[in-house]
Amino acid sequence: MRGSYKTWIGLEIHLHLKTDSKMFCSCPARYGDEANRNVCPVCMGYPGALPRLNERAMELGYLMARALNCRLSAKTFFARKNYFYPDMPKNYQISQFEDPVGTEGFILADLGEVGERSIRIHDVHLEEDAGKMIHAGDVSLLDFNRAGYPLLEVVTEPDLYSGEETEAFLRDFQRLVRRLGVSDGNMEEGSMKCDANISINPEGKGLGTKVELKNMNSPRFVRLALNYETARQAAMLKDGGTIIQETRLWNENRDVTETMRRKETSDDYRYFPEPDIPPFVPDEAFFSRIEKGLVELPLALKKRLVAEYGLTPDLADFIRDDEAVARLFEETVSLGSSPRDVAAWLSSDVRKVLNREGRGLAGSPLTAARFHELLSLIAEGSISGKIAKGVLDRVFQDGEDPAAIVKAEGWAQITDTGQIAEFVDRVLEANPQVAEAVRTGDMRQRGWLMGQIMRLSEGKASPEMAQRILDKKLLDE
Ligand SMILES: [Zn+2]
């Protein structure tokens, strides 16, 4: 069924911008406060209250548009989008219609298994969020803390062709907005939302009728909803039916999409220029701040981690996914540690400690200097990899330097031949049958003997030296 139809998917992604205050007033833009605490006459839509532009939101909007290779507006306008809904106190939303911050862009996206693809961006525009309605039994409650929150909407062209591709695109997009510091990009918490437009048609016939999907609260739900909708529409077309232009909601309890409302065009909103906000004309200083904010993007970072440091794509993915991890990686390598060792420790032991403590790397006691010192102690043979794990734990617990911990605990590796030979002799004397078995060819028991030697030395004997001495004694005597 799928082979004979082609699917086109375009997205409308809404981002809560990372600003201290709302879009048009100085109320805090903050989650989790008591309901209706962060409100004022402007965001409550009182008559006569005058909105004022949040310059930081303008910067973040232009930065995002710049990162998406858009044509940036030299003069950008706000408009009123009229509609009535209880969570919208003004009965209109201040948005952008003509000359939004950016148009006609593209972004090279990492679509996972599909590889890279350039996705065209139709436009990037700023607007304000509505309040929140909470339905509780017979009554509906309203919380306006979110009303007026700065929102950035990114509209893509229909350049995605399956639910899987779209999920991968959204995950890549999340990396991008986090890297740029534009938004938390968290779909589960609502700081990023995504509506999808999907149309399907028989191969070769061009775009079909557009259906809009809403209410998908994670990249995974977006994939499920799109795949459900692809199958539903294909089955309908196959039976000779017609697709109706409509908005459908994803029902995550039933795993289906359901009709919400039929056909709606921009005419319905009766856009007109917002009379209370003058056009925004960025100056040169503004644009140079935007250029400064344009950090290395996640895909470029991944490619560099592979090319420059010889990391596997999987390890590179892991490193770039968290900015604090990426920073620690590069700083530690710049001090002289081996990139592969640093990456391996970050993705295994350091990650384990962070998971166990339920914390992130940002602001942790593991600085680049301490990390480099720890890896140097291993490279020099001063401590074994096993002891190093214990030292790492202690760095997190006490915030002390690895060398100081090793010294205080007497954990330095034993590299004295005579001392190690003594451990080996004691183990062999205590286990004559095992020693005899190894001598006659049972090599599995050799590992057991090594284990006994390491235990006797409390993990401090140099494993390489102990192995060499054990082999010599077993094979030569
Ligand atoms: Zn306000």
The largest sheet, given as strand count, sense and whether it forms a barrel, is:
9 strands, mixed
Distance between the first and last residues' Cα: 74 Å
Strand tally is 14
Q: How many domains, as an integer?
A: 3
What's the order of the H and E elements?
EHEEEEEEEEHEEHEEEHHHHHHHHHHHH
Mean pLDDT, as a whole number? 89
Number of helical regions: 15
Q: Biggest sheet: strands side by side, in what order?
A: 2-5-6-9-1-10-11-12-13
**Portion in helices:** 40-55%
> Rg from C-alpha positions?
30 Å
Q: Can you describe what's shown?
A:
Helix 6 crosses helix 8 and helix 13 packs across helix 14. A nine-stranded mixed beta sheet has the order 2-5-6-9-1-10-11-12-13. The chain is of the alpha+beta class and 477 residues long. The chain contains 15 helices and 14 strands. It starts with a strand and ends with a helix. It has three domains: 284 residues, no CATH class; 114 residues, no CATH class; 60 residues, Arc Repressor Mutant, subunit A. Zinc ion binds next to loops. The site of zinc ion has 8 residues, from loops.
Can you summarize this structure?
The protein contains 15 helices and 14 strands. The chain has 477 residues and is α+β, with helices and mostly antiparallel strands.
